[in-house]
């Protein structure tokens, strides 16, 4: 095993990304080391770079990744999949970026909302570079004991899974919360990686009309390939966007509206676009993008609207996202959502491409070029 591995480090907010060498971890019993195949640039990484999240710098980004198991340290609890099958060297795996959820606190045990557990740690977000290779933008990734690895099925190209990546997992959580029923109409605000996967999963859930609202035009065109039956651009005035959604839903508004744009205005628009008694899920606000005025009487109470927030993901979302990518990867073009692949030296460029929306999805491929 190498004694040092290269990684793309974010020294501080708005500082250029630089490649540094970090020591190989001393694997504790039950730990593993992955040879990184792909890590992704998520919108969250842009927020990290803007200093919008309370995280330790310098840090190394990359929270959703795929790798090959290169080493396993025997002696502890051997990592296993949910079928009880041991994870072996040579397996291609991804892993739930969240770990150390305590399973002792009120959120874990009583509310059964482990995504709100205060003890949880997240690879590539809550760790600093001094914590070691608990990150994806690096040649190797340290799997601490207890990190939940998911084997990539043989029939699934890892590039298809990572094409969906973090956005696919979030989209699955949002679709679960939305409880889409067969034939229902779904409007999706935002056509970035989360919105695109929400559109695909709404269509796979048997939705009737699936209306994508967002920009730019190439993303709207891609939304049709993901399963949108209609799209509305942001060049249409906000009041007219609401009218368009109503026009596509017999004047009633959509049964379900999922906000995946991160724009505060979109939350208010979602409440206007949903039908009376419909459901709105907000999953685009991972950072604080500011307030918006809501009229509780007209937009929520009188409409009898169900409004749900969506934060983080649990193991079951992650696990099912992998299986969905395997089952539907030939039908849904997740793989083609990736518009750029970058080595570690190009990680800053990859981040800039996602920030400027030049790329829907950019990958960091640490062991290539
Ligand atoms: Zn807890
Ligand atoms: Zn992410």
Strand content: 15-25%
pLDDT averaged over residues: 96
Q: Uncertain segments of ≥5 residues (pLDDT<50)?
A: none
Question: Which shape, going by the Cα principal axes?
Answer: globular
| Ligand names | zinc ion
Q: What is the total tally of β strands?
A: 17
H-E order? EEEHEEEHEEEHEHEHEHEHEHEHEHE
Short descriptors:
globular; alpha/beta; seven-stranded mixed β-sheet; binds zinc ion; 369 residues; 28% helix; six-stranded parallel β-sheet
In short, what is this structure?
This protein is of the alpha/beta class and 369 residues long. The chain is built from ten helices and 17 strands.
Q: If you had to describe this structure to a student in words, what would you say it looks like?
A:
With about 375 residues, this protein is an alpha/beta fold. It contains ten helices and 17 strands. The strands form four sheets. Strands 3, 4, 5, 8, 9, 16 and 17 form a seven-stranded mixed β-sheet that branches. Strands 12-11-10-13-14-15 form a six-stranded parallel β-sheet, sandwiched between helices. The protein has a two-stranded antiparallel ribbon with strand order 1-2. Helix 4 links the parallel strand 10 and strand 11 (about 210-215). Helix 3 packs across helix 9. It is globular, with a radius of gyration of 21 Å. The two termini are about 20 Å apart. Bound molecules: zinc ion (2 copies). One zinc ion binds near residues 42, 44, 63 and 166.
């Amino acid at each position: 095993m190498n004694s040092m591995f290269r990684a793309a480090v974010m020294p501080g907010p708005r500082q250029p990304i630089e490649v540094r060498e970090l020591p190989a971890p001393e694997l504790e019993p039950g730990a593993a080391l992955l040879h990184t195949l792909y890590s992704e640039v998520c919108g969250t990484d842009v927020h990290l770079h803007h200093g919008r999240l309370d995280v330790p710098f310098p840090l190394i980004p990359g929270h959703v990744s795929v790798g090959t198991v290169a080493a396993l340290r025997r002696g502890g609890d051997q990592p296993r999949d949910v079928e009880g099958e041991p994870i072996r060297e040579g397996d291609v795996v991804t892993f739930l970026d969240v770990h150390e959820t305590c399973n002792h606190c009120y959120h874990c045990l009583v509310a059964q909302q482990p995504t709100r557990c205060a003890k949880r740690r997240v690879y590539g977000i809550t760790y600093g570079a001094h914590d070691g290779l608990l990150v994806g933008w690096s040649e190797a990734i340290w799997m601490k004991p207890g990190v939940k690895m998911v084997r990539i099925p043989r029939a699934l190209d890892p590039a298809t899974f990572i094409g969906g990546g973090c956005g696919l997992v979030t989209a699955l959580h949002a679709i679960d919360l939305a409880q889409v029923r067969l034939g229902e109409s779904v409007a999706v605000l935002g056509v970035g990686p989360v919105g695109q996967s929400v559109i695909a999963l709404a269509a796979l859930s048997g939705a009737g009309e699936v209306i994508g609202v967002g920009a730019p035009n190439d993303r709207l065109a891609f939304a049709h390939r993901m399963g949108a039956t209609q799209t509305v651009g942001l060049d249409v005035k906000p009041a007219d966007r609401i009218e368009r959604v109503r026009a596509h839903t017999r004047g009633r508004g959509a049964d379900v509206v999922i906000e995946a744009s991160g724009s505060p205005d979109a939350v208010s628009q979602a409440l206007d676009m949903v039908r009376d008694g419909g459901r709105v899920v907000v999953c685009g606000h991972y950072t604080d993008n500011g307030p918006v005025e809501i009229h509780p009487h007209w937009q929520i109470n009188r409409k009898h609207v169900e409004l749900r927030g969506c934060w983080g993901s649990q193991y079951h979302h992650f696990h099912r996202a992998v299986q969905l990518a395997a089952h539907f990867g030939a039908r849904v073009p997740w793989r083609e959502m990736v518009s750029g692949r970058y080595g570690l030296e190009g990680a800053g460029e990859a981040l800039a491409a996602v920030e400027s929306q030049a790329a829907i999805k950019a990958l960091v491929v640490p062991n290539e070029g």
